[in-house]
Amino acid sequence: LSIAGVYFATDILRIMGASPEAAAHGTPFIRIMMGGSIIIVLLFLINGIFRGAGNASIAMWSLVVANIANIILCPIFINGFGPIPAYGLTGAAIATTIGRTLGVMFQVYHLLSSKNVLKIKIKQLLPDWQQIVAIIKIAAPGVFQFVIASCSWIFLAQLVARTGGDTGSAGYQTALRLMMFFMLPAWGLSNAAATLVGQNMGAKRLDRAEESVLKTLRYNATFMGIVMILFLTCGRFFVSFFTNDPAVIAVANQALQILSLGFIVYGIGMVLISTFNGAGDTWTPTWINIVGFWMFQIPFAYFLADYMEMGPKGVFIAIPVAEVGICIAGYILFKRGKWKTIKV
C-alpha cells in the first residue's frame, strides 16, 4: 500500500475528483501519508494488543499522544516556525506522520516495560501457522469492516470534491480532522466495551457483559452529546485554528453543524460495533457496515448531492442519516443476543 500510494499519489487524487492544480499541490501530502502507512498499522495493531490484555487506557493514551502532537506540530510545519520553513499542505502530512510515530513509540515503551502484564519473548516472534490461520479467520471480517468504511470515505470525499471544488474538499477535510480529535475519548470508551465484553464472556458472565455494554452506551452518548453542543455553538471558532479562508471556514462549519447532529447515535453505534467485535461476532458489524455504508449512505449522498443538486451539503446530510440507521440495526441485533453464543 505504501509503495502504491507513493507511486500513484497523483492518480489517486485525480480519481477522487481533484483538479489538476489541486492534484499537483496535494501529491506530496499523499506520498508522505501513504508512505507512512506502516506507522498507522503499528499504531492500531499494538493498540489491539493492549485492549486484548485489558489495558484499554494505554491504547487510548497512545492515540491522545499521537493527536495532541499532530495538533501542536501542524501549525508549525504548515506556517513555519523559527528555522522550520512553511511547508503548507505538505506540513500537515509531516506533522501527522511524526505524531503517529510518537504514538507508536509510546506504545512500544509500555509494551516492553517490566510493568506490562505481557512478556514478549523471541520465540513468540516465530510463525505459528495454526495460530495465524485462527487469527485470519477472526480478523478477516474486521479487515472488511475497515475496507468498507475506507471505501465509503473515499467515495464521499470524491463526491464533495466534484460538487464543491477545492474549497468544499478543504472544508470537509478540516471538519473531519476536528471530529477525529474530539472523538478520541469516544473511541477509547467503545474499545473499552470490547475489552469488557471479551473478559466477561470468557468468565461466563453474560449478564455482566451486557451490563457493561449498556453502561458504556450511556457514557459514550453523554460525551458525544457534549461534543455535539460544542460544535453547534463553537464550530466556527475551532475551524479558525486550521484556516483563515472565509470560504473554507464556511464549508467546514456547515459540515460540523450537520454532522454533529448525528453524534449521539454515532457514539452508541461505535459501542455496539465494538461489542460485536469483542464478542467474536465479527460478521454482524461487517454486514451492518455493508448495508449502512455501501447500500444506503453512498447512494443517498449521490442522490442528494447530484440529483437534488445540494452539493457537499447533501453529503453532509447523508452521513448522520446513515449513522441513525446503523445504530438502530446494531441495537436490534444486540438485543437479539446472538453475540452471546459465539465461540472463539
Overview of this protein structure:
With 344 residues, the chain is mostly helical. It folds into 2 domains: 91 residues, no CATH class; 217 residues, no CATH class. 81% of the residues lie in helices and 0% in strands. It is built from 13 helices and no strands. Helix 5 runs antiparallel to helix 6, helix 8 runs antiparallel to helix 9 and helix 9 runs antiparallel to helix 11. The longest helix has 54 residues. The two termini are 30 Å apart. The relative contact order is 0.09.
Order of SSEs, N→C? Answer: HHHHHHHHHHHHH
| Total of DSSP H or I helical runs spanning 4+ residues | 13
Shape: globular
How far the N terminus sits from the C terminus, by CA atoms, comes to 30 Å
How many distinct folded domains? 2
Overall pLDDT confidence = 87
Strand share of the residues? under 5%
- Please identify the structural class as seen in this structure: mainly alpha
Q: Which regions contain 5 or more consecutive residues with pLDDT less than 50?
A: none
For the sheet with most strands, the description reads:
none
Radius of gyration: 21 Å
Number of beta strands = 0
Helix content: over 70%
